[in-house]
């Protein structure tokens, strides 16, 4: 086995039976450990994945801006779509050089040792790889190194098209769901998402739920393949779906650096983010009690004020993070132990609502029922009462005179429920392009001072490939750029975004 010099403190040498239990008590050097077990590599891969999609850079300055949950308090260029190439490179590298390689290494150890349950553990790692590639292909707009990636014999891997990646991911999920055997153990240590007793059943449910996400993302571009994948996930014989908040896929952080929530760590030294005006105003429009959970009121008051989205750096209206001027994110998202959500129950219910609204067979229950269950799951996760839920849904009934309005209702509520999941919420914003279902008004706004990127007016459709790809993998990079329109632009539409 190769040695890994990036195994992180508190993540590399976890020895856990359930999520992050006791890992704060570990005291092992993180610097080039002599050996790494499959459990340690799985823990590190999950840690690196959660940090990569949940930190202040990729989540805060990309996902949370592009989904318009947050605004910038002072350094506003990124909310106006000027990216930092170094940050972009780190995101790409973390997915490929850290997460995927750690998962491959864990699988190699399992295959070599073949301890009871090794097939389950290899399958769990493979499902984590699907999750990682899915994020990569959607963040970067389709073509990515996939079939030739993570191969030490191929220095310049080809880029597979977005649709080829999707079909590969769906095929892999089908294979791994069939392999998972609840009668055999999964990861008893090292699995910080579902580890311990019963983990194999939970991973089957997660894999089926992830398959739904992938299928719906491509439903308009390839309805036949999407419908087939949906039917497989809905088939109870395949293990079911995430069906409660207790089964949601979360990465749970613990108090104290370096293992607390990365957003919490960022807020300890500076306040770069506030809750955005579009988000606050939409929640206020329907008196949504989740606003008081997601955001803090202005200091000394019960009032909530969102920051204008995309101001110029010199604009005197910028709050500079002053809690007397603007509402800041609450501990619901930036608390030290606030989990990073990977895929939760509320999202599953909204996916089922959309499937039913589209008239796809196999769903038990109506679109309206799943729409309401999605809101209820969100309220439960936010710690709100049944009475609060009942009063709220009377103000936001399911409306479906046609599919477009139904998707507006489902999309707007899914967006609210996904608060904190910046990257996935941004991608769903692009796919569903929803408006207020009751007024037809736009929910999202263009940056107030205009976009820094002349090709992007309202929101980027993708992240550009890192500039090093043009240098280190020139021919394959060039082919990928041609496939998305000829320029490595944030304005190149996703292959599945055919509206």
TrEMBL record:
It holds the Pfam family SusD-like_2. It comes from Pontibacter akesuensis. Keywords: Signal. InterPro entries: SusD-like_2, TPR-like_helical_dom_sf. SUPFAM superfamilies: TPR-like. Residues 1-17 form the signal peptide. PROSITE patterns: PROKAR_LIPOPROTEIN (PS51257). This is Starch-binding associating with outer membrane.
């Amino acid at each position: 086995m190769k040695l890994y010099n990036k195994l992180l403190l508190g993540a590399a040498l976890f020895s856990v039976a359930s999520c992050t239990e006791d890992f704060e008590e570990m005291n092992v050097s993180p610097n080039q450990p002599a050996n790494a077990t499959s459990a340690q590599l799985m823990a590190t891969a999950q840690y690196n994945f959660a940090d990569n999609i949940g930190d202040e850079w990729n989540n805060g300055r990309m996902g949370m801006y592009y989904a318009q949950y947050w605004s910038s308090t002072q350094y506003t260029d990124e909310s106006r779509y000027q990216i930092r190439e170094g940050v972009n490179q780190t995101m790409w590298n973390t997915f490929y050089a850290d997460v995927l390689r750690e998962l491959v290494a864990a699988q190699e150890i399992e295959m070599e040792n073949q301890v009871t349950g090794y097939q389950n553990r290899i399958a769990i790692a493979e499902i984590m790889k699907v999750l990682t590639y899915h994020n990569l292909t959607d963040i970067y707009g389709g073509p990515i190194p996939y079939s030739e990636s993570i191969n030490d014999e191929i220095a310049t891997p080809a880029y597979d098209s977005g649709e080829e990646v999707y079909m590969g991911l769906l095929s892999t999920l089908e294979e791994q769901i069939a392999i998972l055997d609840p009668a055999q153990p999964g990861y008893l240590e090292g699995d910080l998402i579902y580890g311990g007793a019963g983990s194999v059943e939970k991973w089957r449910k997660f894999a089926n739920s992830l398959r739904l996400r992938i299928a719906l993302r491509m439903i308009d571009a390839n309805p036949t393949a999407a419908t087939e994948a949906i039917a497989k996930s809905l088939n109870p014989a395949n293990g079911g779906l995430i069906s409660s908040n207790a089964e949601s896929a979360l990465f749970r952080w613990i108090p104290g650096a370096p293992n607390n929530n990365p957003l919490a760590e960022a807020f300890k030294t500076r306040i770069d983010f506030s809750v955005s005006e579009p988000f606050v105003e939409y929640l206020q429009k329907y008196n949504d009690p989740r606003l008081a959970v997601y955001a803090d009121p202005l200091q000394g008051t019960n009032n909530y004020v969102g920051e204008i989205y995309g101001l110029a750096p010199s604009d005197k209206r910028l709050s500079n993070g002053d809690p007397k001027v603007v509402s800041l994110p609450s501990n619901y998202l930036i608390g030290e132990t606030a989990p990073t959500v990977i895929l939760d129950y509320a999202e599953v219910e909204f996916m089922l609502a959309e499937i039913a609204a589209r008239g796809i067979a196999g769903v038990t229950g109506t679109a309206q029922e799943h729409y309401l269950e999605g809101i209820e799951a969100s309220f439960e996760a936010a710690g709100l009462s049944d009475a609060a839920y009942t009063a709220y849904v009377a103000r936001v009934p399911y409306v479906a005179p046609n599919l477009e309005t139904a998707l507006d209702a489902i999309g707007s509520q899914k967006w609210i429920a996904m608060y904190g999941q910046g990257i996935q919420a941004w991608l769903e914003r692009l796919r569903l392009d929803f408006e207020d279902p009751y007024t037809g008004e736009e929910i999202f706004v263009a940056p107030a001072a205009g976009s820094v990127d002349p090709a992007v007016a309202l929101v980027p459709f993708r992240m550009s490939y890192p500039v090093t790809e043009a240098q280190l993998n020139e021919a394959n990079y060039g082919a990928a750029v041609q496939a998305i329109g000829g320029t490595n632009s944030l304005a190149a539409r996703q292959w599945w975004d055919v509206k």
